[in-house]
Each structure stands twice: as C-alpha cells, then as structure tokens.
Amino acid sequence: MSRSSSxxxxxFSGTHPVSVDAQRRIAMPKSWRLPEDxxxxxxxxxxxxxxxxxxxxxxxxxxxxxxAERISVLDGDGMGACEDIASKMQIVNLDKQGRFAxxxxxxxxAGISNKAVFLGAIFCGSIVAPENxxxxxxxxxxxxxxxxxxEEKASALKASSxx
Length: 163
What we know:
This protein is an alpha+beta fold. It has a single domain (15-161), classed as Chemotaxis protein chec. It contains four helices and eight strands, in the order E-E-E-E-H-H-E-E-H-E-E-H. The strands form two sheets. The chain has a six-stranded antiparallel β-sheet. Strands 2-6 form a two-stranded antiparallel sheet. The longest helix has 20 residues, at 142-161. The model has no long low-confidence stretch (mean pLDDT 87).
C-alpha cells in the first residue's frame, strides 16, 4: 500500500461503476486518491488475468521493477515476459477531475467500451468491463506466471534477510 507524505495509507476498496467518454477517459474513484496527490502522481496500469487491468502505485511498481531486474538479459522467457508486460503497460497521471485516458490496447484487453468498473483489491485496484466483473477463470498467461514467480521469490528473499 502506498503512503503519502502525511503517512496515510492508500487503500483500494469498493466497487465503482464509471462511464467511459469519447476520449476513453475514466475517473479514478475519489476514495483511491489522497489529498496529497498532485498532477505528478503516477499510477501504472498493467494488463492482468481475467480481462482485468491492474492499477498499481509507484511504490508497488518499484517493487515489481526491482524483482524484474533480477532477470538475466540472456533469459529468453524472462525477457519475453518483461517485454510483453511493459509493451502493454500504461503510466497515467490524473487530471484535476481525477480522470485519465485509457489506452486502446488496454481497453481491448479488458473488453471495455462505454462503461467500466473499478474494483478495490486492498493494495491495488482493477478495472474491468461490467460484464467481466464476476469472471474468475481465464487461461493462464505464461508472462504473468513468470513475473509472479519472480516477484514472490524476491519477497521471500527480502523476508528471510530481515529475520
């Protein structure tokens, strides 16, 4: 979870249906924003399983990037996974109304057209099409599996070094 300069934690909670305008802009739920956020505050939109787009903070993205840096450039599968995810990732800043324009590739990935739903997941959020809100299973994606294992390994290493 992200912490602001006032040390308040950012929680991603609730279910928030939103409309998508003609420029594919959607408004991030106000409860997900902190008073200290500025136009420089970035969020990372990452394609995920089950036709979801995950909304992660800069701090969470840093952890993911630190884990990914452990991949050897000679690891074809690992580098392929990084390329696949990074080529579809979108970095957004919110306008004064809390909106951002959703990239067409991510909108297509999630099946989003004129409506979307933000779903809280405590330390991150997700964006889905209303009809995919309840979808729980989708074939595994090798790239996501690979990066998940790397991030879990890094977390385990960090936990064991603090003991």
